[in-house]
Amino acid sequence: GQQVMQIPQYQHVQEGEDFTTYCNSSTTLSNIQWYKQRPGGHPVFLIQLVKSGEVKKQKRLTFQFGEAKKNSSLHITATQTTDVGTYFCAVVTGNQFYFGTGTSLTVIP
Amino acid sequence: GAGVSQSPRYKVTKRGQDVALRCDPISGHVSLYWYRQALGQGPEFLTYFNYEAQQDKSGLPNDRFSAERPEGSISTLTIQRTEQRDSAMYRCASSPTGAYGYTFGSGTRLTVV
Predict the structure, then answer these.
(1) What was the pLDDT predicted at A2?
(2) A29: which chain B residues are within 8 Å (Cβ-Cβ)?
(3) pLDDT over 60 at A1, yes or no
(4) 3-state DSSP call for residue A61?
(5) Is the pLDDT of residue B1 over 60?
(6) What's the CA gap between B47 and B75, in Å, rounded?
(7) How far is residue B90 from each of residues A62, B12, B36, B95, measured CA to CA in Å?
(8) Shortest alpha-carbon distance between residue A4 and chain B (Å)
């Protein structure tokens, strides 16, 4: 089955520091999606990447899809306490929609 | 509706009882997924519908689990003869098609005692 690994599993940063989470797949992906889940909340769709080497930005968030379409990253510049939560990548393989293991971000004020 | 609605929000049931979890997706959304999420884990795929057709049920843990979406809108996930290991958050998500991001419901927290 589809293997989707995310690193790191946990990340604690001081408010204002940058944060990056990486998503790695064992196979080439048609697209990748990113979700954010706040503590006690449900996953919320952030973005979808489709093209090789694609880079998309949402304010302080930068999403990148690798050239080989096997990996992706989410980078947050100058973290804020509102960034706290777990960030998941998700990939589609056939009819199945797999979520990565997630990276839990803690921002220390 | 405006969002994906799941009911009940919380369900406590005795081992051996059957439970039915309901998902009301966003109106017009074609694709509907059921997931199970354990604490601290990512959502685990259970099953997937396009309109009323169940496209993939390979994620259902065993034959005690079943799902339906008879009119291509509301879906029900049924767990028969519940066991303690079935305790989890069950989430439903819908999308206009499979090519867009999914909107998740708030989930049903199932506790089997």
Answers:
(1) 61
(2) none
(3) no
(4) strand
(5) no
(6) 11
(7) 30, 13, 4, 17
(8) 11
Q: What are the tens digits of pLDDT across the range B42-95?
A: 899 999 999 999 998 989 999 999 999 999 999 999 999 999 999 999 999 999
Q: Residues B33-48: what's their mean pLDDT?
A: 91
Residue with tokens 């990548």: A89
> Amino acid identity, residue B34?
W
Check CB contact of B3 with chain A, cutoff 8 Å.
Answer: no
Rounded distance between C-alpha atoms, residue B41 and residue A103, angstroms: 10
Candidates A42, A95, A104; nearest CB to B48: A95
CA distances from B100 to A20, A92, A97, B9, B94 (A): 24, 11, 12, 26, 10
Q: In this predicted structure, what is the pLDDT of residue B2?
A: 77
Residue B36: its pLDDT value, please? 96
CB pair distance less than 8 Å for B44 and A99: yes
Q: How far is CA B49 from CA A3, A98, B30, B90, B101, in A?
A: 22, 15, 8, 16, 15
CB contact under 8 A, B104 and A100: no
Asked if B33's CB is within 8 angstroms of A45's CB, the reply is no
Contacts of B61 (CB under 8 A, 6+ apart): B46
Q: Confirm if B47 and B35 have CB atoms less than 8 A apart.
A: no
Instruction: Check CB contact of A98 with chain B, cutoff 8 Å.
Output: yes
Q: How many Cβ pairs within 8 Å bridge chains A and B? A: 53
Written as six digits, the tokens of A82 are 């509102």
Cβ–Cβ under 8 Å, residues A109 and B56: no
